[in-house]
UniProtKB/TrEMBL annotation:
<protein>
    <submittedName>
        <fullName>Nuclear transport factor 2 family protein</fullName>
    </submittedName>
</protein>
<dbReference type="Pfam" id="PF14534">
    <property type="entry name" value="DUF4440"/>
</dbReference>
<dbReference type="InterPro" id="IPR027843">
    <property type="entry name" value="DUF4440"/>
</dbReference>
<feature type="domain" description="DUF4440">
    <location>
        <begin position="11"/>
        <end position="115"/>
    </location>
</feature>
<dbReference type="InterPro" id="IPR032710">
    <property type="entry name" value="NTF2-like_dom_sf"/>
</dbReference>
């Protein structure tokens, strides 16, 4: 599998995740995508395990739209890769509600890619 193939697959997964967040189905999507020991490190300083992510997403307001910009692939090992990108997400209006750098580390399993670690860093307000 080429780097372009891996990048395309991981971008597809990230897009499906954002689509789920827009459709208020993120809890189900990430509950299935995350490994049992996965963690999410959020821009507000919270660190959530899989159960915490699922619970928090059940109560999260949906995003209206999003953009994924400047994606980069980093090989972490023979069966793992990290996707790094800039996310711009909107809830209401034309001003982004969130703008930051995302890092998603995926593990390739016999069932496909699984999210094992996710981290976000918000850009400072301009």
């Amino acid at each position: 599998m080429t780097d372009t193939d891996v990048l395309d697959e991981l971008l597809d997964l990230e897009g499906r995740g954002w689509d789920a967040l827009c459709a208020s189905s993120g809890a189900d999507f990430y509950g299935a995508l995350m490994t049992d020991d996965a963690l999410m490190v959020l821009a507000n300083g919270m660190v959530l395990d899989r159960a915490g992510v699922v619970d928090s997403l059940r109560h999260a307001p949906p995003w209206r739209t999003y953009e994924i910009q400047d994606p980069r692939l980093v090989h972490v090992g023979p069966a793992a890769a990290a996707l790094i990108y800039v996310a711009v997400a909107y809830r209401e209006g034309t001003t982004p509600a969130f703008r930051g750098v995302m890092s998603s580390v995926y593990l390739r399993t016999p069932d496909g890619w699984r999210l094992t670690c996710y981290q976000q860093t918000r850009f400072p307000e301009e």
